Amino acid sequence: MEKFIINGGSKLKGAVNISGAKNAAVAIIPAAILADGPCVLENVPKINDVTVCLQILTEMGAKVRMRGKNTIQIDAKHIRDTVVPYEMARSIRASYYFMGALLTKFNHAKVSMPGGCALGDRPIDQHLKCFKALGANYSIEHGMVEITADKLIGTQIYFDKITVGATINAMLAAVKVDGLTILENAAKEPHIVDLANFLNSMGADIMGAGTDVIKIRGVKQLSGANYAIIPDQIEAGTYMVAAAATGGDVTIKNIIPKHLEPITSKLIKMGVVVEEYDDSMRVVGASEPYERMNNLKTMPHPGFPTDMQPQFAALLTLSSGTSIITESIYEDRFRYVDELRRMGADISVDGKVAVIEGVEKLTGAPVKAADLRAGAALIIAGLCAKGRTEIEDIYHIERGYEDMERKLRAIGADIVKRKYPDPDTIRNIG
Ligand code: EPU
Questions:
Q1: Catalytic residues
Q2: If DSSP codes are grouped into helix, strand and coil, which group holds residue 133?
Q3: Could you tell me if the CB of 123 is within 6 A of ligand 1?
Q4: Would the pTM count as exceeding 0.85?
Q5: Is 430 inside any structural domain?
């Protein structure tokens, strides 16, 4: 197993290049199944969730070729198998996109209940409701969801809850059906627009992505396409917060500043200087403590993203006064709090609300990443803390951040990755 070792105290300085968006890539890769010819995808992040998606495609019979570090060619012409291997599907959340893609292509899909970060209850009722509304039937047995249809027909679907995953799955499932599908109360995240753009470049007819009503007119055929995935706004936001937290001066490159507005506006409010350019942003941190946030509430896009909540909490531990964070998307996304407390943070949690009393300093400690963004928060805290922080379970972080250790080192962080023995092995020896 591997851990990060950080010696805190260096101000980050320089420029960092942002990779392609994880949550767009893990939707666009399964969507490539729908093409009759090969698809070439550029700006694909080299992260573990993407590797698992590509392994699933290969296991099912697709031909996947790397054409450089971040470009892949997928030819799904030879896929005949509509069953996604259990263990692979269970290890990531995005495996549920194979349900929508396989269903629309083959009228059948069998995929395990998805995994992903443990953030409390994460049901898939809205996904299943869409498949049913389009004319499919489903059953759940032995951990597998099996979906079958004789024929899928366009319809009107109202989401009871704003959900990124079900909006994407409904788009995938509806793209080739007979007639018009209208999705209402749809999610509006940038990666939803990215998927719609990719499908349209293959010949789909999707309008309204990025608003809460998406109209999908089914088409008979989709062809292969070349497509570049959008930059990852959460990776960008994470480096922005790291730059601010260390009082650094970092230019974040290869971004779409518009996608970052919900993050940028909060940083500016706290007193961070942000200069915006066409496809980059310069973040200049202060040496004094930042202003507290008296109501930082996570919301669906264009609200403040839940995927930035832990990183902001790390930043707020050192701000002046009392900050309040309300997590309104997930039941349990404060699992990093105990670890930040080990480092001297003063945080209390009551249900969906965290109260953070700013402290003068954090001190390095051995900690564990509970999930992907929790891990990012611990890295930010470690960069600011006095002394040495060791972060275990970094496989969570590597699910979603490309080359994080290398990128951070290039802007002045003192961070290395080291192997350590698996605790189970030690127990077995004992
Ligand atoms: N929900 C339901 N029923 C459903 C689907 C969702 O009740 O059928 C609930 C969820 O339990 C949650 C809320 O609706 O409370 C929002 O869930 P959503 O479907 O939007 O999230 P997701 O598809 O499971 C994706 C990202 C997450 C990100 C959320 C919100 C992927 C693979 N995952 O998850 O990313 O937090 O959208 O933006 O795209 C991360 O990158 O760290 C991460 C967790």
A1: 117
A2: helix
A3: yes
A4: yes
A5: no
